[in-house]
Amino acid sequence: MAPAAVLVAALLSLLTTSATAADEASDRELSEVEALLDALPADLSAAFEFKAADSLTHFVDGDSLVLRGNAVVFHKGAQLEAGELVYHSKEELVDARAFVDSSGRLVGAPSLTRGNDVLRGKRILYDMASGEGMIVDGVIQYKDGHYGGRYIETTSDEEFHVHAGSYTTCDRESPHFDFYSPRIKVLVGDMAIARPVYFRINERRLIPIPFYVFSLREDRQSGMLTPGFGRRPVTFGSAESEWEIRNMGYYLAASDYWDLTLSADMRQRSGWLTQLATAYAWRYRFSGRVETRVQNRQTGSSSNWEWWTRFNHSQKVGESADLRASGTFQSSKNFLRDNSLVLQERLNRTLRSNARFSKRWRQRGASLTLSSSYTKNLDTERFDFVLPEISVRSNRKALFGESEGRSSSAPWYGRIYYDVNSRLRNTQKGSPADTTTRTSANVSFGLSTQQRPLSWLSVNTSLNESWNDADLRSSQQRYEGVRSDRLRSSATLSQTLYGMFHTDVWRVTALRHVVKPDIGASYQATRSDTGGVGLDGRSSPWTQRRQLTFRLNNTLWVKLLKDEEEEKVRLAQLNLSTSYDFDRDGRPLSDLLSSLTIEAGKRLNTRVNVRSEFYDGDDVFRARPRLRQFEVNTSLRFTGRRARGADSSDRSTAEISDSSTGALQGGRSRSAYGSGGGGFGYEGGLQRDMTRREGRQVQISHYYSRRRGSSSRSWLRTGLGGSWRDRWHLHYSLNYTLLAQGKPFFDEDRVSAELLSVQRHFHDWSATVNIEPSRFTRDRAFYFKAQLDDIPQIRFERGDSRRR
């Protein structure tokens, strides 16, 4: 209703301050026309801009001035056009209407244009004396909606009434559906009150609502929520279901800093659920949200109360400190399972709460963190409670010099850095029957340096000293303080070699081979010292590890000439890697890992992974490695051209925001059949929408793996999709196990997943049916949904996935 109100108000302003004049008139009529124009008030006759057309004629009919042909009036950004514009001087009445031409056709229906919005009607009347006006059969299109009214009567610039008003997203002259109200009162720029309101299909009233208030304000404002109606299981996994009216409530936009949402769900058998949510924010200071749900569950003649609360808060404390906290609390472990419509909430079986305060001293490069956390598994009832955790950290700093020591031109000692960290942590772990409490402490000091004496040589060295006590409360020997020393140094030699081969075969202009060998040597020595936090104690011997790593990366690129421009495409990539550990007692040379990727445009992709070992079963070295594991994954995809003029937009369920309140009314159900990491159809469930994609799609993936000493695995994934006449959309996917011992090749048990989705798009709504073909007759696994495309809140759903 908002755009209609805006344009009607503009029309009233236009009609109260507009008149028309003629640029050409016959000598006989000129004096009469000028006499009528002179009779207009001076402020009215000077407040318009008139555009004449060649076919425009004007004449005086009694006391009326008539302009016929193509009368156009401009005023304050609005444009009024009409085939015939009549001003009745005695009644002070303006009449904009169509007229009958010489062939008997009705032409020049009046229209009012403001920006991109156009208001059309059969007739526009305005009484300049009383300030009242009327628009007959007015229609306006705004975004995806069409607003209209049989009669629109104005009583003032701030108020008008709509008789037999309607709203629809169907663009047919006789819409398939609409929202209809016989009486609508509009307060311009504020609200529209309709009573009653009917949802109609082909002008047949189906769902009545006693009254409804539409907000016409553009900013965030208070308003009623959009309710929903449907069936739900009484409890999670229950075969018994009940009717439910959801989301009846109100959204309060109290101020620019906070809001409040209060709603209730009324249920046929299990009682009711109320929800209270408030969000608050003060820019650059704090923000947060608190949500509470309270349920009165009825079971027979008895009832019990259950509740659930979730909150999050973020706040700036001064210039360099932050406070963050979040938590979830509930009285019953199955509360979300039984009441939430969000899949992620129903699957989550862990409660988490945490609070954290952090303070930073930027000039000193130090920070302090105080935190606490609580985690509980709802199924096992095991918990982990941390209170408090104190951490002090000093950022990495140059040991000699300030920030200039980080530049590439600084001396080698300018790249020596140090850092200091410490932490104190008190924890409680276990279950209600068995709880363990510990207080641990840790302090560490580190030195590190990064040197690059040559462009192809990189040297990294670090020394770390840490003191750790697993439990300060305990005097047992296993919890004695431990000092750990770790020294690590590594050197890497790497270089990149390029080779270019020019050719004139087909569109190929050149082949480019990139080789990158990499050899690294690393040394690490560690030891621990028990008996206290100081430097004395019982030292263990140094444990050292010396290792060499070898890597070789090969990449083959091809340059293609396309539309007189060269395009670089990666054709294949081969990576080899292994390592040698001097301190390993057995099998010092690790397995050779080989990875080959072949790409043929955007259609074919093959990846081969091979693991080979240099030792036999008796750990005897063999120069020729033998195969240990082989894995190949191939994907082939074809995408046909879309039909001309096809609409490839995604019509899947979207986030629905009530335009009158800004409150979130629903959640997004992302399609599993559109373009994604795994193609379409593979990871989808029954209760999903498909993405409407015109054209043909075929995707075949094959996976095979074999490991020496164990059985092989192989499966085939197939996805097919297509559209017919831009209305029918079909998708089919199948996961088929190729290697299954003891089962015939065409056995039904080899099918691990199968889905057939058929969607029929009508003019303004869609119907989707998803089934598992091989199990439909046996298990009745299906899902059906009919939904309006532009108003997804209005839908009908039915699904069943019971197993016999």
SSE topology:
Layout (H helix, E strand, L loop, with lengths): L1 H15 L10 H13 L2 H4 L3 E3 L5 E5 L2 E12 L2 E11 L4 E5 L1 E2 L5 E2 L3 E4 L2 E4 L2 E5 L5 E10 L2 E10 L4 E10 L8 E11 L3 E4 L2 E5 L2 E6 L2 E4 L7 E2 L3 E6 L7 E12 L5 E10 L3 E12 L3 E14 L2 E16 L3 E10 L4 H5 L3 H5 L2 E12 L4 E12 L5 E16 L17 E16 L2 E21 L2 E13 L12 E13 L2 E6 L5 E23 L7 E2 L3 E20 L2 E17 L10 E9 L3 E12 L5 E19 L57 E11 L5 E12 L3 E10 L13 E11 L3 E7 L4 H4 L2 E7 L6 E6 L4
Antiparallel strand pairs: 1-3, 2-3, 3-4, 4-5, 4-8, 5-10, 6-7, 8-9, 9-11, 10-11, 11-12, 12-13, 13-14, 14-15, 14-16, 15-18, 16-17, 19-21, 20-21, 21-22, 22-23, 23-24, 24-25, 25-26, 26-27, 27-28, 28-29, 29-30, 30-31, 31-32, 32-33, 33-35, 34-35, 35-36, 35-37, 37-38, 38-39, 39-40, 40-41, 41-42, ...
Structure description:
The structure is a single chain. This protein is mainly β. Among the domains are: 2-218, no CATH class; 480-637, no CATH class; 640-800, no CATH class. Helices cover 6% and strands 58% of the residues. The strands form three sheets. The protein has a 30-stranded antiparallel β-sheet that branches. Strand 21 (241-252) and strand 22 form a beta hairpin. Mean pLDDT is 79; it is low at 1-34, 40-54 and 643-684.
